[in-house]
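Sequence in, structure out.
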Amino acid sequence: MLAGDRLALARLITRVENRGPEIPEIMRAIQPRLGRAHVLGITGPPGAGKSTLVDRLTSHLRAEGAAVGVLAVDPSSPFTGGAVLGDRIRMQAHTLDPEVFIRSMATRGSLAVGVGQTELDIVKLADTTVVALVPESGDSVQAMKAGLMEVADIFVVNKADRDGAHALMAELRFSMHLHYSSSASPKDIDWETPVLATQAVSDVGVTELLAEVKRHRAVLEAGGALEKRRQARRRAELRTLLVERFASEVLGRVEQDRAIARVFDAVADGALDSYSAVSRILSTMLRPP
């Protein structure tokens, strides 16, 4: 995999997805190589043309000589909004390119269902978050606006040749300016979220989008915010893994530890509330041997 074998990389991802016992060994091997890529998250409601945007961006990046990895989340998540098969068909021009890796991944419950929440999940993974919308997204924008303003580094109104595109862009720009100007909005960089128009099918506006992605990266790097964000992301990942591991340990001991099993039985019978049960289980788990 470290030598550029895409098949080996696909197999490693499968093992990680399946929570195989090799995960610690895999992570130790790749740890020295992490952090050199800029992670771009593209999200938004179904039908926004995200797959086509990714396809066009990949073409532009390859023209510059950059290697590209694409991870498309399972269609059960609004991250893709369409069938993974459709994503693959749209990107088939890149499948034989040894410098492009494309992989569909299941959420396995790690991303919440619901577009508004998913944007908040994507920002935890990305260095730069692009939210793609279409003129018909008006109602969705109203429902998600608070969350979108917090997570979007760049807004894209795709299919901008349709009716309502200019009105949506004007609304977004007004909202972003108010958000940027508000002293109540915490900021780690001086960045007013740009709103761009694209027609990804025709490759219109994609050059400008890529330029804004690069500008955002430069701003992040100049102020040290990129590394701070990545540090926060690593801390959050560690907390998540600790919670998962601890929960697995507790549940694994239910059958073996009668004290813990009795607590579960008491909750099931309605004799004990869940909060008190958690305290008892923690006391049992943390008790010195």
